[in-house]
Amino acid sequence: MLDKEVISALYVSSLSGENPIEILRRKLSLSSDYLSERIESLVKNSFIEKDKETLSELGRGSIRVVLAGGVFDIIHPGHLHTLRAAKALGNVLVVVIATDKTAQKMKSRIPLHNMELRQDLVSSLSMVDYAILGHEGDIFKTVALVKPDIIALGYDQVHQEKFITDGCRKINVNVSIARLQSPIPDIKSSKIENEYGSSIYRT
Question: Model's pTM, two decimal places?
């Protein structure tokens, strides 16, 4: 189990550029020396390359990466349930945050929080391993970067599964599609905003 955590941290570090030891120390109460020893062991067993920073093909194949996405302008219980369910599908959960232009198109309004704030908000959720800003107008650029094993679609996302599968095939990324359900599908950001108004954010 610990080795999977180490391998997952190296995968995340390949996206974020952060030291994998620092990623692991945030999640696990273990010393840097012990974590370095585990990395050495994984190098010897060919899960990590000799540079101690790059996953081998064996290492990458030993974990399942799940990709989910959305605007996340107002975090509500539906989001939390969906992201927990997405994380349960694999070892690493990467969440794509819609750019401000994309969010405005999707919501037909300017988002309450800019994309950097929304990225920071989602990053703070315990089930999220990494939050990444999306590419404007082309979701497959992000897919090509992340190379997920599974793409998890939320209960309220309108993406067509065939569209995503075909698009991934064109960039040689083999994925499975998971359609997630919510026990409370009537809770949506738009409904919260309508109920409480913009006054909860602006005085």
Answer: 0.86
